[in-house]
Amino acid sequence: MISETMYTLGSKRSCIRDLFEYGLQQAAIVGKENVYDYSLGNPSIPAPAEVNGAIAAILQDTDSLAVHGYTPAGGAMSARQALADDLNRRFGTAIRPQNLFLTCGAAPALISVIRALAVEGAEIMGIAPYFPEYVPFVESNGARFVEVPADTDSFQIRLDELEKRITPHTQAVIVNSPNNPSGVVYTRETLERLAEILTRKGAEMGHPIYLIADEPYRELVYGGAEVPFIPTIYPNTVVCYSYSKSLSLPGERIGYVCVPDDAADSEALYAAVAGAARSLGHVCAPSLMQLVVARCASVRPDLEAYDRNRTVLYEALTSYGYQCAKPTGAFYMFVKAPGGSAAAFSDKAKEKNLLVVPGGDFGCPEFFRLSTCVAPDMIQRSLPVFRELIGQF
Ligand code: PLP
Question: 107: Cβ below 6 Å to ligand 1?
């Protein structure tokens, strides 16, 4: 017999993948230049030169057995030390290598933390719009995913709605800022008010409510927007980080979980994260990449291309009448669908080979997502299609 749950997860294709594959098929028929594919969040700027330099230097200088061998389950201490040093320099924290568990990107980081907290009857909250994978990450561990409805004006957090949904079973709230799909960065004020609620409700419930900060886009911000380091605002925060977007390394699978000492029961929580990773076989993240990110700990991406795409698209679309919160981070825009149904808009756009992701799986069926990590000339070619479409609704 085969697990029905796993079968369904594995055989149901994501809408994003469907659109992407449709785009490839259409490109073969109508020509690549006539397909406007805004579906995938695959970085469109190359990894910084320092990354390739580090790979070459490591392969040249380091003993091959050490480069390609197993490391401790949570990663090489030297790599964890380098990453902790960088965090401490930037955020004035006192993170130790023992607080970090290196992972194959943010996805295994998240699922390990969720699994570590998935006690009997656990509820884990996600704030719409959210990364759709949170739902299977939570539910496949036997916990209940509780959705906080979106603030569709500013895409900050509807704190009143969040507070109403806290029960004695609430174990954690997942926050993702800069946000996929809205591109919005939660302000310090939003996070401070959230911290106040979680502190008060945690005391009332008699157990900590953790924040799980999903931060693959932490370094991707524009116009000087501040991305507060959430553990400095709310101590019961566990950070899930990834180099997939910040160093354009999504295929290399490297990131980490950080359980700071100030988090409640931090040693036990770290051990449970390690146990969850072990139970899933997610131990010993790629060893070459551990060495690479250690050497590149202070390297930041050049965001000019993403920033330009964001500005061009935002200005053009709003001038045609589309409504959208101006993104200040990540590489997405979340646009209100003319006519009210993003699924209907996406289908209509698809007929013109314009591929936009309807927001239902993000918890906002009236919005569609554009990944703005695309070629600038594709944006220019797609603008007349956006203009024509809004006229049809
Ligand atoms: N969280 C969010 C919000 C994402 O957008 C993604 C990837 O797109 C992930 C987590 C997973 O990232 P990774 O590739 O590091 O597993």
Answer: yes
CA of 237 to the centre of ligand 1 (A): 18
The reply to whether 117 and 97 lie within a common domain is: yes
* Together in a domain, 192 and 54: yes
C-beta of 180 in contact with ligand 1 (< 6 A): yes
Q: Is the pTM of this model over 0.90?
A: yes
Q: Assess whether 133 and 86 both reside in one domain.
A: yes
Domain end residue (candidates: 270, 295, 320): 295
SS3 215: coil
Phi-psi category of 75—alpha, beta or left, where left has phi over 0 and alpha has psi -120 to 50?
left
C-beta 287 within 6 A of ligand 1: no
In ligand 1, which atom is closest to the CA atom of 107? 16
Q: What is the CATH number of the domain that holds 313?
A: 3.90.1150.10
In 105-162, the DSSP E strands lie at 123-127, 144-148
Each residue's pLDDT, cut to its tens digit, for the chain (393 residues) gives 999 999 999 998 888 989 999 999 999 999 999 999 999 999 999 999 999 999 999 999 888 888 999 999 999 999 999 999 999 999 999 999 999 999 999 999 999 999 999 999 999 999 999 999 999 999 999 999 999 999 999 999 999 999 999 999 999 999 999 999 999 999 999 999 999 999 999 999 999 999 999 999 999 999 999 999 999 999 999 999 999 999 999 999 999 999 999 999 999 999 999 999 999 999 999 999 999 999 999 999 999 999 999 999 999 999 999 999 999 999 999 999 999 999 999 999 999 999 999 999 999 999 999 999 999 999 999 999 999 999 998
Q: Is 285 exposed, middle or buried (0-12, 13-18, 19+ CB in 10 A)?
A: buried
Whether the CB of 242 sits within 6 Å of ligand 1:
yes
Task: Give the separation between CA 233 and CA 273, rounded to whole angstroms.
Answer: 22
Does residue 214 line the site of ligand 1, with CB under 6 A?
Answer: yes
* Any ligand 1 atom below 6 A from CB of 216: yes
Residues 280 and 335 in one domain: no
* Ligand 1 closest atom vs CA 242: 15
